[in-house]
Amino acid sequence: GTRIIYDRAFLMQMRNSPHAK
Amino acid sequence: SPRPILKAGPGEHPLQFNYSIWFSRRSPGKQQNSTNYEQNIKLVGTFASVEQFWRFYSHMVRPGDLSGHSDFHLFKEGIKPMWEDEANKDGGKWIVRLRKGLASRCWENLILAMLGEQFMVGEEICGAVISIRFQEDIVSVWNKTASDHATTTRIRDTLRRVLNLPPNTIMEYKAHQDSLKDNSSF
Question: What own/partner pairs with CB < 8 Å and gap ≥ 24 does B75-79 have?
Answer without folding.
Answer: B75/B19, B75/B20, B75/B22, B75/B126, B75/B127, B75/B128, B75/B142, B76/B17, B76/B18, B76/B19, B76/B20, B76/B125, B76/B126, B76/B127, B77/B6, B77/B17, B77/B18, B77/B19, B77/B20, B77/B46, B79/B126, B79/B127
